[in-house]
Amino acid sequence: MSKELTKVVDEIGREKGIARELLHEALEEAVLAAVARKIGKLLEPDVIIDIDKGIIDIMLPKEVCEEVDDKWTDIHIDEASEFKENPQLGDIIMIPATLEAMGRQAALVAKQKLFEKLRDAEKQVVLDQFNDRIGEIINGVVLKTDRENLIVNIGKTEAILPKREMINGDFFSRGDYVRALLLDIKIVKGWPQLILSRTHPEFMRKLFETEIPEVFEGIIEVKAVSREPGDRAKVAVYTTNSSIDPVGACIGLKGSRINSISNELRGEKIDVIEWSPDSIKFVCNAISPAEVVLTNIFEDEETIEIVVPDDQLSLAIGKKGQNVRLAAKLTDWRLDVLKESEYAEIRKERMQDQEQELKDFYEMYNLENLKGLDADTISMLIEGGYDDIEKLSNSTFAEIAQVLESDDDKGVSVINMALDYLASRFEELDDEEGEEEVAVEESQESEEQVETKVDTEEE
């Protein structure tokens, strides 16, 4: 039994990469558990283990007595003399024993405890080995497949490549070589489960590091990746070295470098573009191969409007919107693509709207709306930079008094005039909005009544 246990421990340790110290500790705890099951926990035995030689020495503490009630805890005084010179009644002496002598039950306890400890040790080895490798490429060999997962041998342990993390067109049989990204480590039923992915954008980034020396060395940086796995991807690259073309370096001579990455990804087409800190320039690069005529940025809406020639609209959008969708993911902007003829109409409408807004603003904030101001006062205010009621209402009475070359009372009077006017206008606007809302509600109620009447008539 001793040789069997030490042999099992040695083989598992070599296979799983468990340290010798942990193996020794696991076997010692297992033997102690087996002995405790047999003799109880009142007295602690000594256990000496040599895994290399296959030796497990057990020393049981026994009390010297004249009558032996329990052979596992007592020893007759006549027998005690073999282990200690001149023993006395009540002495505790250490007596050698074997695991085999303790019986089958003790051996089973030892095995069970041993495998529990070895599993805990293996779990810790897996966590220590792979926790720091999340986000790296893992190489492995397929052990088996099922409907949901691919089980991959990655050395000392196994990993799972779920179907959802596989590229369309991926097909692996037992024994096939697999490259994938270590996406995550989850604890499932107390055991670490390594999750692999071939669809994650980070897998593309790591392949660039693997296949392109300049990226690996940090001369070229992969700034962003967007993918539709197995179909098409866009990768933005950048370098601070002006003597290097980052796009050309990543593509390689006659596409040699980018083709090796594409082949790994089942022929996924990869557009390599140059990253720029200028959002507009970056978006123009990302929407390639379409030519950009002009752009408008709406930061509040996180949107960039892109105008392209009429004959390049389909090129900019791409098949089923793929090109613009990947560009949007790459740049983190919402992209609105328009053709020139369409934009011309939109621009015309916008200019009309702007003109109307200016007209409305002028009508509402014109200083002539303040009935208490004469023409000379209005002229002095305009010359002083207060050419509308809004500016006037946000000024101080001292500033207005200085512009009008009058006392503070005059400044207070003018500002109060502006504030009273704005308050009354805003109140009128609120009333108008309320009336419109009531009208809309009444219209909706009428429509519902008509629909109800129609339904009743049909019945």
What does this protein look like?
The protein is an alpha/beta fold. It folds into four domains: 2-128, N Utilization Substance Protein A, Chain:P, domain 4 (2-Layer Sandwich); 134-197, Nucleic acid-binding proteins (OB fold (Dihydrolipoamide Acetyltransferase, E2P)); 277-358, 2-Layer Sandwich (GMP Synthetase, Chain A, domain 3), CATH 3.30.300.20; 366-445, DNA polymerase, domain 1 (Orthogonal Bundle), CATH 1.10.150. It is 47% helix and 22% strand. A hairpin with a 4-residue loop joins β13 and β14 (303-308). The termini are far apart.
Question: Top keywords for this entry?
Answer:
4 domains; single chain; 15 strands; N Utilization Substance Protein A, Chain:P, domain 4; GMP Synthetase, Chain A, domain 3; five-stranded mixed beta barrel; OB fold (Dihydrolipoamide Acetyltransferase, E2P); elongated; 47% helix; alpha/beta; 459 residues
